[in-house]
Design a protein that fits this description.
It contains eight helices and 15 strands. The protein is of the alpha/beta class and about 250 residues long. α7 runs parallel beside α8. The strands form two sheets. Strands 1, 2, 3, 4, 5, 6, 7 and 15 form an eight-stranded mixed beta sheet that branches.
């Protein structure tokens, strides 16, 4: 299993990175986690426009899903080869309506479902291609989910966006790679049930016994070096920053 960071900027794209989007691959299957602002262009550096096998949307804030509108255009209006078959899309309740509203001018009210096969995510365990996945509800202003992906004895846990919660610690228990948001700075922002800071991400990884921690979703106005240092103070394992266009073996 391998993870490629398509985009990792939090809240809005930076000059160096698109917003949240991560490509997970195994056995020739390509699963995309989130498709935030700017992600569709970056994705084409790593796979063909029509080579995805499934998409998981952690929640419906624009920095995690808005490029699905552009992807709709690419799939719906493709002339060479004809209309794309519906692609499985796993997201919170109301995902189809959210994307249709964001696009604002689909040919019909059901056009999104002509190219996307929508599945509603709830807490639970199921399969996506060769992956065994487990999802849990996180603490965020909108319905949001973290996901644990397992394949061939290895695991990746992606937090999505969340405040501090035991559910994330349990989901990331003994995970090989913990891809965890750290949008806030310790001692600066204090808004409950919104985001983690670097220290809180490190504490979550420590409680979970994660083997490796990768901080992500850091906004352009935040100094990632501070978040990295804060995480290292409380987590003894390897800690790094998610880097766009870098692939990590799991």
């Amino acid at each position: 299993m391998k993870l490629t960071v398509v985009g990792c900027s939090g809240s809005f794209p930076s000059a160096e990175s698109a917003c949240s989007s991560y490509l997970v691959e195994a056995d020739g299957f390509r699963l995309l986690l989130d498709m935030g602002n700017g992600a569709l262009g970056e994705l084409q550096r790593h796979c063909g426009l029509y080579d995805l096998d499934a998409i998981f949307l952690s929640h419906l804030h624009a920095d995690h899903c808005i490029d699905m509108c552009a992807y709709f255009v690419a799939r719906y209006y493709r002339h060479d080869g004809g209309r794309c078959d519906p692609l499985p899309v796993y997201g919170p309740e109301g995902t189809e309506q959210r994307l249709t509203t964001a696009y604002a001018d689909t040919p019909t009210a059901s056009s999104m479902s002509e190219v996307f096969d929508f599945h509603t995510v709830k807490p639970g365990t199921f399969e996506i291609g060769p992956f065994a996945v487990h999802t849990e509800r996180m603490r965020h202003p909108v319905e949001a989910y973290a996901i644990r992906i397992e394949h061939d004895g290895k695991s990746l846990t992606y937090s999505g966006d969340t405040g501090v919660t035991d559910a994330l610690d349990e989901l990331a228990r003994d995970t090989d790679l913990f891809l965890c948001e750290a949008a806030f700075t310790h001692g600066k922002e204090k808004i409950p049930d919104l985001h983690l800071n670097g220290r809180e991400a490190g504490e979550s990884a420590d409680r979970a016994g994660a083997r490796r921690l990768l901080l992500t979703h850091i906004p352009p106005w935040t100094d990632p070096a501070v978040n990295l240092a804060d995480a290292r103070e409380v987590f003894d394992g390897p800690v790094g920053l998610a880097v766009p266009r870098v692939t990590y073996e799991i």
